[in-house]
Design brief:
single chain, Aminopeptidase, 2 domains, 18 strands, Alpha-Beta Plaits, six-stranded mixed beta sheet, 454 residues
Length: 454
């Protein structure tokens, strides 16, 4: 048996036990109560990388959550791979919908259940264990660096400056990322494009305090009513975003490109069944694959205001708010889109309310060329472990810092993810298949081998 495969097989139980230790740390970056857990998680990862074989592994401070940096330099003249991942996870709400404790992982039906099981602790830990397997078997063919951050789920705000301040430390030939998905285990794919993101918050204020809805209803603007009307108007009946200038820089695919894009295996009936929906909805004239891969979109992520507790309280709320994200495609600049959004919201707001608009975070779209050496190496590695050539695939998700890496460090990223649509990332009952986890650990060393040979 191949020495790496033998090592993985012999240490499977320990690998899972270690991953479970990592998953038990509630490293929720969006909620300040968990700030101490961010540092604890970073320290745990640094120790794990040292144990795996890193010559240097440390927790480095930033203006926000710490970055874990580690490295093993086998030969200064050899190629260098910089592994990027994030140890922060999404909030667990609504907690009542979880079938198990989100921070007490379990294995059931061949899958690991828990917050971060896929996004991104399970996927980043594949790299730590693949690295360990190569070190332990004397098969590491190139230099490896790790950069694991704790703010991806809130925009990676501190990482941009960290990269700018540590350009020399982070020098590499490619950045290797596992924070994306495949089409399926039967139809593997490599992500070659990500949508960008503009994330906004809108607050509408009416009277200076909550008012009695009987005494003032019909005479004073209700911020909740106004906000819902405004939000509803942002997307028309054809699924088209109504913000002026929103589509100015969107490049339309040619007929040839559209046919090629839609060759990816997809069954609408299976898609609807998996999501328990009666029908899909989106921009008219485009397929579901196009809507989620190469077309921009706008969605309300949360909306609140007024009384929502048990019982009744007849009021006109003083304020109402919403969080809104816009997924962007190549040539759309999130900074321009954020400005257009704010201008439009202010323009459609009635004089009876005051509006405050805030940009929370954002990032540019990203495209990874399929002809770069790293992609070719990954293609060979996936073909060897999955038994078929992976398809190039455009993801509807966003990892804003990826485009930042290219701008700041001048390094392209390879998006070699092993997630699946069924993993419920960002949702209750997040999970990750055992076969995905171990197949990833098996594939990653092959990438190193073939990339070093290029």
């Amino acid at each position: 048996m191949d020495p790496i495969k033998h090592y993985i097989e012999a240490n499977k139980d320990r690998f899972l036990d270690e991953l479970f230790q990592l998953l038990r740390i509630p490293s929720v970056s969006a909620q300040s109560d968990y700030r101490p857990e961010m540092t604890r998680c970073a320290e745990w990862l640094a120790a794990a990388l040292r144990k795996a074989g890193a010559d240097r592994a440390e927790v480095m401070t930033t203006e926000g959550n710490p970055v874990v940096y580690a490295e093993k330099i086998v030969d200064p003249k050899a190629k260098t791979v910089l592994v990027y991942g994030h140890y922060d996870v999404m909030p667990v709400d609504p907690r009542a919908e979880w079938h198990t404790d989100p921070f007490e992982p379990v294995v059931r039906d061949g899958r690991i259940w828990g917050r971060g099981a896929d996004d991104d602790k399970g996927q980043l830990y594949m790299h730590a264990k693949a690295f360990e397997a190569m070190c332990a078997t004397g098969t590491l063919p190139c230099n490896v660096k790790f950069m694991l951050e704790g703010e991806e789920e809130i925009g990676s705000g501190s990482l941009y400056k960290f990269c700018a301040d540590h350009k020399k430390l982070l020098r590499a030939d490619v950045i290797l990322v596992s924070d994306t998905s495949m089409i399926s285990m039967q139809v593997p794919s490599i992500t070659c494009g990500l949508r960008g993101l503009a994330y906004m918050e809108v607050e509408v204020t009416g009277p200076d305090k909550d008012l009695h809805s009987g005494l003032f209803g019909g005479a004073v603007a209700n911020p909740a009513n106004v906000l819902t009307r405004m939000v509803a108007s942002l997307v028309d009946e054809n699924g088209h975003v109504t913000i002026p200038g929103f589509y100015d820089n969107v490049r339309e695919l040619t007929p040839v490109e559209r046919r090629a894009f839609n060759k990816a295996p997809f069954r609408l009936t299976d898609y609807k069944r998996a999501l328990d929906i009666r029908d899909v909805e989106g921009e008219a004239g485009y397929t579901t694959l196009e809507r989620t891969g190469v077309r921009p979109s706008l969605d309300v992520n949360g909306i609140w205001g007024g009384y929502i507790e048990e019982g009744t309280k007849t009021i006109i709320p003083s304020k109402a708010s919403a969080k809104i994200s816009m997924r962007l495609v190549p040539n759309q600049d999130y900074r321009k889109i954020s400005r257009l959004f704010e201008r439009h919201i202010r323009a459609i707001a009635p004089k009876s309310v005051r509006v405050h608009v805030k940009s929370l975070h954002g990032g540019m779209p990203y495209v990874a060329p399929t002809d770069m050496p790293a992609y070719k190496a990954a293609e060979r590695a996936v073909r060897e472990t999955f038994g078929r050539t992976p398809l190039p695939f455009y993801s509807g998700g966003s990892i804003p810092i990826i485009s930042g890496f290219e701008q700041i460090l001048g390094i392209k990223s390879l998006l070699l993810g092993f997630g699946l649509a069924q993993d419920a990332i960002h949702s209750p009952n997040e999970n990750y298949g055992l076969d995905q986890f171990f197949r990833g650990i098996e594939t990653i060393p092959l990438f190193y081998k073939y990339f070093s040979e290029e």
